Amino acid sequence: EEWIRRLKRAQFANQKIQIFKPTIDKRYSDMNVVSHDSHSISCTPIKTPSRMLNIAEDVQVVGIDEAQFFDESLVEVCQTLANRGVRVIVAGLDTDYLGKPFGPMPGLLAIAEDVQKVHAICVKCGGLANHSHRLSSSKKLVVLGEKDVYEPLCRQCYNKAVSEE
Predict the structure, then answer these.
(1) Tens-digit pLDDT profile for residues 13-35
(2) 20 to 30 A Cα–Cα from 22, which one of 13, 30, 48, 141?
(3) Is 66 part of the annotated catalytic residue set?
(4) Is residue 32 within 8 Å of residue 42, measured between CB atoms?
(5) Catalytic residue among 66, 76, 164, 165
């Protein structure tokens, strides 16, 4: 929601924007980023971060969704865009279902000029959720899903859930 809001504000301000998401993310739409509350914004699905460097020269803002699904080269791509004067707004999960740093996110957090962590609400206790607890038994790192596959949990509820598995 917050990421889409920021990008729509840039559009409203008549800034030229380009939005990307990984091709793997087809949960709601192939050509849109869609929030859990059904807000959406059009995007370009790509396989590799280097494709982002082919933006038009007049693009002022680049939005990147689900950054955790891209490889480590995303960090250098974001640096290159920022060095060109492009405002880069990235959204992604900082940790995976095991609570470990996820993909390029640690590198992005390190180079970011501004970081805002937005938390869900723990479905068990109502506190701030900073963990995505996987409900399925899959051990694959990337399993796409939403409420049927993951539940947001705070640290205490996550630790309790994991210890009971």
Answers:
(1) 999 999 999 998 776 666 667 66
(2) 13
(3) yes
(4) yes
(5) 66
